[in-house]
């Protein structure tokens, strides 16, 4: 018979939940409320309070072509980095699921990149992908100027995308391997006995059966690409060259803490939050239909 613990004192439960509520209020609700307040007000030039301006901050934001360029860059960054991270992780997961030699070793080391903080990753890739002293610096010796993230905006964006994707390959890999190993081996063996090769089995059986996991990872990767990319961008490029890597999350920091435009930065944070919510709704509305739940 199952035993259950019953606490007659309701204050004990409240005491257990109070620290968590305090943390949520301090680090989520209070900053969010302040951002909402700043987004609809404007700080006086010499201090002394804020004046209510309504939607003027948003009107100025939406009329700024530089801001729209950051939105386009952020969307491109999210799509490319998510595709690269999930595609690489899926290939690695399929290879490990085939029980190749050394699969346990690879299963362990593929997880490590996700434990590294974004600033540390940005610092490492800043040196590795440098044009003069990085691992691919020899390319510039053969073709001078073909790779220069410090001057070429496309090279800088490619470097940032590669670093961010490298971090999330391990995260995606964990879930994909778990989902692949949850597939009954009898289905894989039956397909093999029918003459289906490993590539055919992957596309016709394995990938369709793990679509719930793929959908979950798609939502997480796209959401994090808008929020978790700040550390990598700040260390690797600082939004340059010529704002070529200035994503929405970095523009919020730059305008707020360096440009001292707190109201404009707060308005940008509200727009970013709404954009992430909208993208999540779109994914659940149109992509979840293709998910095959077993």
Structural class: mainly alpha
The CA-CA distance between the termini, in Å, is: 31 Å
Number of strands: 2
Q: What's the pLDDT, averaged over the residues?
A: 87
Radius of gyration: 24 Å
| Helix-residue proportion | 55-70%
Total number of helical segments? 13
Task: Describe the protein in words.
The structure is a single chain. The chain has helices at residues 10-39, 56-62, 65-97, 103-109, 118-128, 137-142, 153-181, 185-193, 198-209, 211-227, 230-236, 248-258, 262-287, and strands spanning 41-43, 50-52. With 294 residues, it is mainly α. It has a two-stranded antiparallel sheet. α7 (153-181) runs antiparallel to α10 and α10 (211-227) runs antiparallel to α13. It is globular.
SSE blueprint:
Layout: H1 10-39, E1 41-43, E2 50-52, H2 56-62, H3 65-97, H4 103-109, H5 118-128, H6 137-142, H7 153-181, H8 185-193, H9 198-209, H10 211-227, H11 230-236, H12 248-258, H13 262-287
Antiparallel strand pairs: 1-2
Descriptive labels:
mainly alpha; 13 helices; globular
């Amino acid at each position: 018979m199952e035993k259950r613990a019953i606490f007659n004192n309701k204050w004990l439960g409240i005491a257990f939940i109070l620290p968590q509520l305090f943390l949520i209020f301090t680090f989520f609700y209070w900053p969010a409320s302040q951002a909402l307040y700043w987004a609809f007000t404007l700080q006086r030039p010499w201090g002394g309070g804020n004046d209510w301006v309504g939607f003027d901050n948003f009107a100025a934001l939406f009329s700024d072509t530089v801001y729209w360029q950051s939105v386009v860059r952020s969307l491109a960054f999210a799509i490319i980095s998510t595709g690269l991270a999930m595609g690489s992780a899926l290939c690695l997961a399929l290879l490990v699921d085939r029980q190749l030699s050394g699969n346990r070793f690879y299963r362990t080391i593929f997880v490590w990149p996700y434990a590294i903080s974004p600033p540390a990753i940005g610092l490492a890739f800043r040196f590795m992908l440098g044009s003069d002293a990085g691992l691919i610096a020899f390319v510039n010796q053969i073709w001078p100027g073909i790779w220069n993230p410090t001057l070429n905006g496309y090279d800088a964006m490619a470097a940032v995308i590669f670093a961010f994707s490298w971090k999330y390959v391990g995260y995606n890999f964990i879930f994909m391997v778990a989902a692949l190993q949850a597939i009954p081996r009898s289905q894989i063996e039956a397909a093999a006995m029918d003459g289906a090769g490993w590539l055919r089995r992957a596309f016709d059986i394995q990938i369709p059966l793990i679509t719930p996991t793929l959908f979950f990872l798609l939502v997480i990767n796209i959401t994090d690409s808008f929020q978790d990319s700040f550390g990598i961008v700040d260390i690797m490029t600082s939004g340059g060259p010529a704002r070529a890597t200035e994503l929405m999350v970095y523009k919020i920091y730059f305008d707020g803490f360096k440009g001292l435009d707190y109201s404009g930065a707060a308005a940008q944070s509200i727009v970013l939050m709404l954009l992430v919510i909208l993208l999540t709704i779109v994914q659940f509305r149109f992509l979840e239909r293709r998910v095959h739940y077993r």
